[in-house]
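Input record, target 12 of the design panel.
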């Protein structure tokens, strides 16, 4: 009797989900009812509440979520995920290998030697360890404490290594939105400088002074009320890169106490920087994963007519 060939990790990962393609516009509950005619509405609602239904890779619990042709609906075959509620952290995607989260401003990504408080890392570790003490998360990249937005963690060392060693090949799009002081002179441009970490701050030089070459592309979306809304695309991911590059241009980020200069303003009670887009090839399946969050509502308030 022939032995069945062992499944590859990618095949195992894909087998965790039942996949459906959306062909016509309809609400999520109606779509699930059509695909699972034998399931009661109570059963379908419980799938949503257990957070095992994904629309275009994002956990979706809203029964009347409007589906459009071309979207992908997945139902995880894993038993309901452990309940996760934290006002500073939201899980937007999770599988056996990675967790993608949206971090709120004010939360550290990971502990530092000086700061031992709760972080995104410690909160997620507690969450995955509810499934067994051997489980934990692994750091892949970071966001500054005062930056909100999308982050990814690995769930094993091999996946962490794959992501870290091949970051520039795996990550296809990583974008931020910021509100900066003043009216940006250009609609779009690229900033190049060499950054050096001085511990308390990062210094910038237009010339190679031994620092790390850093490249930021930007596009100005809106100008109003003495502010500019800017979308930023990182070609390199250095510490404080966007904050320093905006300071270099003479348009520091609103609410940035470190790089905002003596006259910095803080009209919304936070730094106006948000990582809104993260697209990458899954480190195990190779599938393209695309995540996007709305621009924060308080950023938009700064542009309302006075």
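The sequence produced for target 12 reads:
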């Amino acid at each position: 009797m022939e032995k069945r060939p062992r499944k590859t990790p990618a095949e195992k990962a894909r087998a965790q989900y039942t996949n459906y393609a959306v062909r016509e516009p309809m609400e999520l509950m109606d779509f699930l009812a059509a695909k699972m005619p034998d399931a009661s509405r109570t059963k379908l609602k419980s799938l949503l509440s257990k957070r095992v239904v994904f629309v275009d890779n994002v956990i979706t619990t809203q029964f009347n979520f409007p589906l459009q042709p071309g979207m992908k609906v997945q139902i995880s075959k894993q038993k309901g995920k452990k309940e996760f509620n934290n006002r500073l952290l939201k899980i937007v995607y999770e599988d056996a290998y990675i967790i993608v989260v949206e971090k709120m401003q004010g939360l550290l990504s990971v502990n530092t030697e000086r700061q031992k408080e709760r972080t995104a890392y410690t909160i997620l570790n507690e969450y995955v360890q509810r499934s067994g003490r051997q489980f934990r998360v692994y750091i892949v990249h970071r966001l500054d404490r005062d930056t909100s937005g999308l982050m990814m963690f690995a769930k094993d060392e091999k996946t962490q290594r794959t992501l870290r060693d091949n970051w520039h090949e795996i990550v296809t799009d990583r974008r931020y939105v910021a509100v900066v002081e003043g009216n940006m002179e250009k609609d779009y441009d690229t900033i190049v400088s060499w950054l050096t970490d001085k511990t308390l701050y990062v210094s910038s030089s237009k010339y190679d002074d031994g620092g790390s070459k850093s490249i930021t592309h930007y596009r100005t979306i809106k100008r109003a009320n003495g502010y500019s809304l800017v979308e930023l695309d990182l070609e390199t991911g250095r510490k404080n890169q966007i904050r320093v590059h905006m300071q270099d241009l003479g348009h520091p980020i609103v609410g940035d106490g470190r790089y905002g200069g003596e006259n910095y303003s803080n009209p919304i009670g936070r730094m106006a920087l948000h990582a809104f887009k993260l697209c990458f090839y899954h480190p195990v399946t190779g599938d393209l994963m695309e995540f996007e969050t709305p621009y924060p509502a308080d950023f938009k308030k700064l542009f309302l007519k006075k």
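Residues 216 and 234 are 5 Å apart (CA to CA).
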